[in-house]
Amino acid sequence: xxxxxxxxxxxxxxxxxxxxxxxxxxxxxxxxxxxxxxxxxxxxxxxxxxxxxxxxxxxxxxxxxxxxxxxxxxxxxxxxxxxxxxxxxxxxxxxxxxxxxxxxxxxxxxxxxxxxxxxxxxxxxxxxxxxxxxxxxxxxxxxxxxxxxxxxxxxxxxxxxxxxxxxxxxxxxxxxxxxxxxxxxxxxxxxxxxxxxxxxxxxxxxxxxxxxxxxxxxxxx
Length: 221
What we know:
The chain is mostly helical. Helix content is 81%, strand content 0%. Helix 2 packs across helix 5 and helix 5 (86-111) runs antiparallel to helix 9 (159-165). The longest helix has 33 residues, at 188-220. The protein is globular and about 65 Å long. It starts with a helix and ends with a helix.
């Protein structure tokens, strides 16, 4: 019973890091820079949040499967198979959770008063220094919210994970797929225990985030 919990925490942590890097990067790029086809890029980033997870998983399977462009390359070049491994769990969770990180980071960057950024540029700071010392710190609450929600979403990912990674006990069986398997096989006690773990942990994450944001806003006022 503990193996799915450990694997889920591992997958969610790595997926959150990946989503954070790409989400913040694309949010800053599309918010602060004039990029050709901005609407297309933004739509593509948000699409995994709109599509059914099974469709996202199917598309990932087409890309990372043995006959997919990336999957075939990795298999032929490095002898590395992605499908039905824990890495597939990470990929599925990262893709599905990325839109949450992107949306929160985008909103956070848009809320930053450009006066501070322009003042920093006037004092001779380059783009990266302005981002590091002004934009990113002022976007802190929105970024933290994105991280917490991204982690929670990655932890609860089911459909895309099942399509790409399967449900192999001890290998790719996360908490959601373990709950599904327990229900199908009539192991109600195991399903109930895992559901309680997920609900309590998710509640604590969101509750803690809201409490932190309220304290942050109170101190700001």
